[in-house]
């Protein structure tokens, strides 16, 4: 269950990080409220997962999912460059996430 919560927390991190773009510096009320709610929910689920998982693993996986997901979402939704090097480094992030999970001992 902890891994499931952690993955959902990571996906929420992707959502709120992309949502920050739509807040326009927290000047738009609805996108700002949704972004803040996403941050709170993501942190809460991370804290729940960290009850069982080692914090270094939980935090690393959470950040990795968020960073890779935000990079991909930027390329898909925000017309950011999708160069071969960017994709290569996103894949490296995902390899690191898988490696952390594989070596967590749970």
Automatic annotation (TrEMBL):
It comes from the Bacteria. PANTHER family: GUANIDINIUM EXPORTER, SMR FAMILY PROTON-DEPENDENT DRUG EFFLUX TRANSPORTER SUGE. It is found in: Cell membrane. Gene3D superfamilies: 1.10.3730.20. This is Multidrug efflux SMR transporter. Its main location: membrane. The keyword Transit peptide does not apply. Keywords: Cell membrane, Membrane, Transmembrane, Transmembrane helix, Transport. The lineage of its organism: Bacteria, Bacillati, Actinomycetota, Actinomycetes, Kitasatosporales. It is a multi-pass membrane protein. The chain crosses the membrane at residues 29-47, 59-78, 84-104. It comes from Streptomyces luteosporeus. InterPro entries: EmrE-like, Small_drug/metabolite_transptr, Small_multidrug_res. Belongs to the drug/metabolite transporter (DMT) superfamily. Small multidrug resistance (SMR) (TC 2.A.7.1) family.
């Amino acid at each position: 269950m902890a891994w499931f919560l952690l993955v959902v927390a990571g996906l929420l991190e992707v959502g709120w990080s992309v949502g920050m773009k739509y807040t326009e510096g927290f000047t738009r009320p609805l996108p700002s409220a949704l972004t803040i709610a996403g941050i709170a929910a993501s942190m809460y689920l991370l804290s729940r997962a960290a009850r069982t998982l080692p914090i270094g693993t939980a935090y690393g996986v959470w950040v990795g999912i968020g960073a890779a997901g935000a990079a991909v979402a930027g390329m898909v939704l925000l017309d950011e460059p999708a160069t071969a090097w960017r994709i290569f480094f996103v894949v490296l992030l995902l390899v690191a996430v898988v490696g952390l999970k594989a070596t967590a001992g749970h």
